[in-house]
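Consider the following input, taken from an annotated entry for Putative unusual protein kinase (Saccharomonospora marina XMU15).
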Amino acid sequence: MAISTSNECTQADPQGRIACVTDFRDSTDEAVETAIPRRAAARTAKLASLPLGIAGRAVGGWGRRLTGQSAEEVNAALSAKAAEQLFEVLGTLKGGAMKFGQALSVFEAAVPDELAAPYREALTKLQAAAPPMSARQTHRVLAEQLGRSWSQRFAEFSDQPSAAASIGQVHRAVWHDGREVAVKVQYPGADEALRSDLRQLQRFSRLFQALVPGTEIKPLLAELADRMDEELDYRTEADSQRRFAKAFDADEQIVVPKVVASAPKVIVTEWISGTPYAHIIKDGTTTQRNEAGRLLAEFHYSSPTRAHLLHSDPHPGNFMLLDDGRLGVIDFGAVARLPHGAPPALGLIMRLALDGRSAELFEVLRSEGFVRPDTELDPEDVHNYLLPLISPLTEERFHFTRRWAQKQALRMGDTRSQDFRTGRSLNLPPHWLLIHRVTVGAIGILCQLDAELALRSIVERWQPGFAD
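Applying the prediction step yields:
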């Protein structure tokens, strides 16, 4: 095998970022197996192979179910075989396809049980699993990013990946100073795969709409595309994780692993171990579920104040309950920057809705862009639409359940109802899109956990504008 190289990487800077990257290429490049199918035509064909007939019936059936028809009237049986195919296509393609599947997985709590059951396990698998790339490929990327002598940085390195993500996989290792570390290595061709997938998935947005009641697929895909470049450069992720780690350093409830080193396609962080939220969702005790939910809510609402950032990839694969009872958080590729913290208007909207001050609520929504200037709406209808969504704040403790999520989806999706018409008339301003999606995703996890917690006290403490 012929190898050509350019300059070696220089010494890492004080934050562990690699100052330059070795150009380490195999002249027989075409013979090297790739982790992600790169050709757009091949990826399009795989995405198009999704069970369109079954999925099409599901779209129609779920749509009729959401309009209030009984389950007996709905001819939309989703088979386990179709679910397996969905996982195989989205998971093996990785890239944008897998990232989209992960985003869908947090919303399954809102889907009626008789329709969602075959898909639930398949979508959950996407949160933490995908076929790995070979050791040869992994070593190649490490050499390109950390230099030809990359192995000398580690006392030990496991070639067997411990986890897989949408654009990279994680290896367990021991740093040269003895620290256990997680090494995330980006798949070759991840950038091409993301761009190709997101273009094709946008074509199928209507097909997938029924999978996520209560949200819109097109804005979700647009947001994934907008944030693509940030997620592809692990140095940006490393900088975000450093800020989170500093904000939560020595915290009694939340652990963010420190960054050890980073390069554009490799990031090395401290290793943490715990019980993944996916396991708690499946087999956790009531105590585990409630505590996992409380910690997640604490992290979600406190981050904008403490770190001026919002972790924007809420799916169970990114959270774990450590043996000492703390919440472990990983994967900071998607982060919203909130230099002034969470917007006080959000807390004010919650407060006015709770107090029944519909006229004032309507004016705040209009000033924030939720009501367009040329839109005529009854303030009482808007209040009636929003009030059930903040019902978790009306009680000292609230039990988040799949049944509650399904009820909200049915209410907002019933085309015969006033709530449906009101919801369709409201606007979601671009600068609110990410906060909205992350909050909905976090609530989706709480419903999957079947967690009961005192959410109101957390919101009172951390959300500006709510208790003012």
